[in-house]
Amino acid sequence: MRALQLMNWKSDPELVEVPKPIPGPGEVVIKVGAAGACHSDLHLMYEFEAGLLPWNPPFTLGHETSGYVDSIGSGVSEVKVGDAVAVYGPWGCGKCARCKLGIETLCENPMAAPIPGGGGGLGLNGGMADYMLIPHERFLVPIPEGLDVLTAAPLTDAGLTPYHAVRRSWSKMTPDATVVVIGVGGLGHMGVQFVKATSGAKVIAVDMKQEALDLATKVGADYVLLSNEEAVAKIRALTNGLGADVVLDFVGAEATIKMAMASARTFADVTVVGIAGGTFPFNFFSQGYEVSLQTVYWGSKPELVELLNLAGRGLVHAEITTYSLNNAVQAYKDLQAGKVKGRAVIVP
Ligand code: NAD
Ligand code: ZN
Ligand code: ZN
Question: Are 225 and 238 contained in the same domain?
Fold first, then answer.
């Protein structure tokens, strides 16, 4: 079968021929329906130094996958051949306190996980292939009625991560609140929709590209702003001088974190989702009183179940641009060049 693999750090991925996986006891093999291309893969492939993560190439890319159960190993009882499934991507030990709650992103015994601090497409073989091995059936979530396999794939990361970020700040998203979304790409265009679908708050979307702002308007943003030196003043003007109650930064660069903190109202949540590596000098007086600055990492399995339900009912959807597996390298090139609208999804 075909697989798009990262062979070495700091290199382009390569489409190679590998054997089709066979499920061992407790394992499942899925026929991939779709696999999303995440900006994190660009950080992973081209920026990360060897030794930063506890695993190394080669492995198949794709940590945002959906498909159909193709074969099951002995002892698998919750899924059957032919089931349409979404893959819960962060794979923990399954036994610690966090994993028992389905928060495998924060596994406290990563050495007992299928791979420490990773998953399929992150150290182990992922979804950019004809088939993918799933080490345990608990990593599969049924795709609900009303949702297709193609648009379910991006929901497992481009959806799950902003859903988790929005959910974490729900108490601040009152009907009179304003949420600023910085970076309206794969994650950000979902973030806008989660705020609108689950709260009464207004959304101001900020991006460098007009096409991204057009997408933000299409998916429900109340206001859109170009990302420049005037953006903070405009956010203040749109909030009666008060600032935003929640700022979600889907870029995480020096400039965007600075913008996020300068746009925050007192008691605001500023959540850094993007991993561009920007820093912020934080002390008691560097922002309004009681502003929280936090990061988020992916999301929990219960949150994935919730948001698939939301999408199945048509309340949120992923805007996708599809590529064949043979053309997957181009998907990453387009993502790097900022040419993808919504999410690039590889369809084997
Ligand atoms: P993307 O490339 O699809 O979207 C990024 C968007 O940000 C683009 O629309 C781009 O124009 C915009 N942008 C870039 N610089 C900007 C600036 N200075 N001001 C305003 N907008 C700007 O990327 P994505 O796949 O949505 O990922 C976004 C970030 O989130 C990446 O850093 C990725 O690695 C990270 N990520 C984090 C997690 C997590 O768990 N924390 C999960 C997935 C992705
Ligand atoms: Zn990702
Ligand atoms: Zn665990």
Answer: yes
